[in-house]
Amino acid sequence: MGSSIVPKVIQDFGEIPLVLHSDVRAPLASLSFLRRALAMAELAMIAYNDEDEARRAAEVIGFSESKLFDRDGAQAFRFASEHDVVLACRGTEPNEWNDLQADANASMAVVGALGKVHSGFNREVDDLWPVLEEVLREDQRPVWFCGHSLGGAMATICAYRCKASSLVANPQELHTFGSPRVGNKRYIRHAELSHFRWVHNNDVVTRVPPAWLGYRHGGDEVYLDRHGRIRKLTGIWRSRDRWRGFMTGLMKWKLDMLADHSIQLYTQHIVTAALKEEDAVSDGREAQGEDDLVIRKTADDES
């Protein structure tokens, strides 16, 4: 029996092909956790492309509507199917000054009684939020959030604002990939939100801004080890995994801390996990849910 996770390729002339595996025909809530995570990762990856290529790529995996919102360099896509709306915030672009400025600015801004949030990330969302709030308010479909790198931080803030807004439907779920820390403990705990925070081995972006400045991670961590497997590793076991990943990278003449940040790698590893899940289902075992995976609650100081 063949796999239903079949690669689909989108490629413009002279550009690196975009390989996609999701096939979202049903509501996202009806998919297994891994299939849903794969769709979120691929939409976060698609968000790096120009509007035309992103539209074609989103259509291929089941999202017939797409629109790019761009305000002063802060960018997010709204992708939609007949069942769902997904807000995918665009991550760090090396040539975009606003993105680099937001990443570098480690100061915190006070958000009323909600705590403190990274002022650079928050400013990026400030630019976009009025128009995003308006389009989300007009839609009755379930709303999901995702993003990679800076896009993960922006998606987190957007989802929190969505949760707090009386004008917008409650967010269903948030998936972030290689996201930096966003705010202090009070801020990341003020919203009861289903948030899955994907961390790949030595991904250095997940370790900034530093915890000693008061920053904390939120959500439930899903850790991908040096082989890309979803595992629960803490303390010395995680340190050992990271060290081995770092040394393996050096032997391949690459810096693991930067290479592990790639959204393409995050996506590839989730594809592998989803294929294993599909094999398990074919063998008569049930698909994995959140409780079956090695997802763990975030402690006060992570990654």
The computed structural class is alpha/beta
Question: Low-confidence segments, ≥5 residues, pLDDT <50?
Answer: none
What overall geometry do the principal axes of the alpha carbons give? globular
Number of helices: 9
Look at the structure and give the CATH class.
Alpha Beta
* Mean of residue pLDDT values: 85
Order of helices and strands: EEHHEEEHEEHEHEHEEHHHE
Overview of this protein structure:
The chain is of the alpha/beta class and 303 residues long. The protein has a single domain, classed as Alpha/Beta hydrolase fold, catalytic domain (Rossmann fold, 3-Layer(aba) Sandwich). The protein is 37% helix and 19% strand. The protein has helices at 33-46, 51-61, 97-104, 119-137, 150-164, 185-189, 235-251, 256-259, 263-282, and strands spanning 8-10, 18-20, 65-71, 74-80, 85-89, 108-110, 116-118, 143-148, 171-177, 195-200, 220-224, 295-297. The strands form three sheets. An eight-stranded mixed β-sheet has the order 3-4-5-8-9-10-11-12, sandwiched between helices. A two-stranded antiparallel ribbon has the order 1-2. A two-stranded antiparallel ribbon has the order 6-7. Helix 3 (97-104) crosses helix 4 (119-137). The protein starts with 7 loop residues before the first strand and ends in a 6-residue tail after the last strand. The model has no long low-confidence stretch (mean pLDDT 85).
